[in-house]
Amino acid sequence: MLTALGRYLPDWLVESRLLGSLNTDERRELVERRFQANLSIAPYGGLAIILLVPFFAIVDSERVAADLSRAATVGLSDALIVASHVVLIISALLAFALKHRRAVASRRVAERLLTLHMVGLMSALLVLAIIAVVTRGKFLRLSTLLVATNFAYIVKWHWRALINASAFVFGTLAIFFSVPVVSASRLFNFQEFLTLAGLCVISGAIVHRDRKIAFLDQYHESLRRAKLQEEIDLAAKLQQSLQPSPWPATDAFAVQGMMRPAQDIGGDFYDHFTVEDGAVCLVVADVCGKGIHAGLFAMSAKSVLHTTSLQPAQGATANDPARMVGAANAILHEGNTELLFVTAVYARYQPATGALAFVNAGHVQPLLIPRSGDVRWLDAPKGRALGVRGQQRYASAEVGLQAGDTVLFITDGITEALDASFREFGLERVRAAFESVRCDGPAECIDRLLAVVDAFTGGTVQSDDITCMALCHQPTPRTSTLAALSQ
Q1: Do 158 and 306 belong to one domain?
Q2: Rounded CA separation 38/153 (Å)
Q3: Domain shared by 210 and 126, yes or no
Q4: Rounded to an integer, what is the distance from CA 228 to the centroid of its chain?
Q5: Domain contains 234
Q6: Is 179 a member of any domain?
Q7: How does residue 10 score in pLDDT terms, banded at 50, 70 and 90?
Q8: How much is the pTM?
Q9: Tally of structural domains, the chain
């Protein structure tokens, strides 16, 4: 029975060991949190004093008036009552002073004011409680004293215990030996006093212990969050470091990309690399969702696409973009228990001829920005996103690039960018950004697009990752010269 009952009672021993095993940093944090909590509660305590003192004063003034009518002099108890009311009012004013700019700016001033406030409050309540017991009060002030003492966390626990024990012992002695009443009334008063004291002490001790443990849990949680944030920052730096560096512009082609994550870790990625036959493979992709899980799946998808492109022996997939994307999709689907998927455009570019073959796996179509002519979207059969279904066929499309032509690959973070009125940027604005302006090289194309998007959003919080990559076939001599000078 005792074992069964123990399951429903607080494990005081474990909690005491937990509080007793705190290290120096944890104790310092506990003291700081306790100070901040008392600092925020003190003004409300001061307000409560201002509201209750008039009622206490009315009751005590009647007692003082009765004493004066009998003895025509003010006794010690009457003087102590008046002094206690004055101290309570001063304590309330000290609590309000904690909101003064000097107290807010100085920790030392705030600590002194808070200490004086609590000492004055407890001293006055202790005196009033003793007088209330001696004069057969209803123990209102005594219960108030016990509650205030147990909730006054700026005072160490052994001082609170001493005050509670002193008030309890003195109250018991006063009831049985100082109050001239019959024994039945004494017993009744003692029962009332014992009930109030027991409830106040037990409830105050439980709340105090719970508050300490809560402070400790908050401190550990803050440490855990700080460590997690450090790991996230490290992962974000690692993700940015894995982005490919822009190739120096040559007479054959120039490539540049960028990713602007909406959170610390993004779900978009881009890649460009060469294969054995001299072709350049380009990838722009967008994983569903954002955050750590999307970032991890993005790194996995990037690795799978890269590895599959560099292994043409497996069904000669590297020479056929559609078959290569199909093989990568099968690998990403295998073991994908979280049902994540990634949309992507995979392209294979031949610098010598300008031939660009690409596959669209549920992604935004590439934009062709010709050196001369109309800007247009490159159409291709839209396949299913990668990782959704294991066996999936994809179709490729091909376009021949002329000298100075640029192909822009983007993610839906650009087309779905929102302004303050929740309007989307849209595909048409992307195309319109290059209708009357011709950019010299991929870097200028990316800079112009981002400038137009930022002007449209007007500082609205970015809701999705923004990624784009530009490929320029046989850039103009001016682009090559500037790139060479930048080297």
Answers
A1: no
A2: 7
A3: yes
A4: 11
A5: no
A6: yes
A7: very low
A8: 0.57
A9: 2
Residue 63's pLDDT band, with cuts at 50, 70 and 90, is low
Better pLDDT: 113 or 73: 113
Strand partners, 280: 274, 349
Q: What is the extent of the structural domain holding 261?
A: 246-486
**DSSP state for residue 387 in the 8-state scheme:** T
Structure tokens at 66: 């009765």
Q: Which residues of 433-451 are buried (b: 16+ CB within 10 A; e: fewer)?
A: bbeeebbbbbbbbbeebbe
Q: Are residues 213 and 306 in the same domain?
A: no
pLDDT confidence tier of residue 357, bands split at 50, 70 and 90: very high
Nearest in space to 144 (alpha carbons), one of 154, 132, 153 = 132
Q: What is the pLDDT of residues 97-154, one digit of tens each?
A: 888 888 878 888 888 888 888 888 778 877 766 666 565 555 555 555 555 555 554 5
- Looking at the fold, whether 333 and 370 belong to one and the same domain comes out as yes
Rg (CA), the chain: 38
d(CA 295, CA 133): 69
Element (H, E) at 428: helix 426-432
Distance from C-alpha of 91 to C-alpha of 114, rounded to nearest angstrom: 9
Q: What is the CATH number of the domain that holds 465?
A: 3.60.40.10
Whether residue 183 lies inside any domain: the answer is yes
The verdict on 338 and 309 lying in the same domain is yes
Residue 271 shares a structural domain with residue 171: no
Task: Compute the average pLDDT of residues 190-214.
Answer: 55
Residue 396 covered by a domain: yes
* Residue owning tokens 């799978």: 304
Mean pLDDT, rounded, for 404-427: 91
DSSP symbol at 367: E
Distance CA(33)–CA(65), nearest Å, equals 46
Using CA atoms, how far apart are residues 369 and 205, in angstroms rounded to an integer?
74
Q: In the chain, what percentage of residues exceed pLDDT 90?
A: 16
Which of 236-250, 356-370, 385-399, 463-477 ranks highest by mean pLDDT? Answer: 356-370
Chosen domain end from 176, 193, 228: 228
Residues 463 and 13: their CA atoms lie apart, in Å, by 49
Q: Which of 361, 320, 323, 367 is nearest to 343 (CA)?
A: 361
Query: Are 216 and 327 in a shared domain?
Result: no
Choosing from 197, 228, 259, the residue where a domain stops is 228
